[in-house]
User: What shape does this take?
Amino acid sequence: MQKEKIIQELEELKNDNRFRTIKTNDKSLYNFSSNDYLGLAHDKDLLQKFYQNYSFDNYKLSSSSSRLIDGSYLTVMRLEKKVEEIYGKPCLVFNSGFDANSSVIETFFDKKSLIITDRLNHASIYEGCINSRAKILRYKHLDVSALEKLLKKYSEDYDDILVVTETVYSMDGDCSDIKKICDLKDEYKFNLMVDEAHSYGVYGYGIAYNEKLIDKIDFLVIPLGKAGASVGAYVICDEVYKNYLINKSK
Assistant: This one.
């Protein structure tokens, strides 16, 4: 790492008006860039009720260790149980959506695997793809026909294929046709991972839930930092996959 080179790159960013700084929010402005889609994070009545029911008399400021070492809060265990009741499959809570996406992919897939991903999938998904060392193919955004062409071409060469998509894409608000993608599973026998970061809350429990597709999705990831007005993420999957994540995920 050369400090002079870093300084030069930062200067180039400044010259191109692309240099970023962190600032405080200007309270006089409307924030149209927020992911708090339902406004729950700023609901004063909800916040007051939360602090009344979940005071610091019952919770520490920090977990101080991982759940495997220090044990889990009973509240988190109850949350996972409640999610399982709603979605009909086991749930494992992660500390963030980014960690959930990257961890699932790099835990279950390796250099013998093929991962086919929508070209505009989130960076956390690509992080997991790269860390898995699998062969990565990208298909044209939302183009199920392009996805099927890749499946036709490569399905006989790989026993272990993962297809990854989001339901709602935040930059343009467009939606993938996950029902069509699920229909392809019957013919091509791949694993399917779906990220519902931007549909959860806005579409109730998510598009996959509304379309009754939960059983067709191997890994349903629901980050809670958007309309969920919180932190962390649900990974909804079979019990055997949940246990493997607990034992093998970073």
Q: What stands out?
A: Residues 74-87 form the longest helix (14 residues). The mean pLDDT is 93.
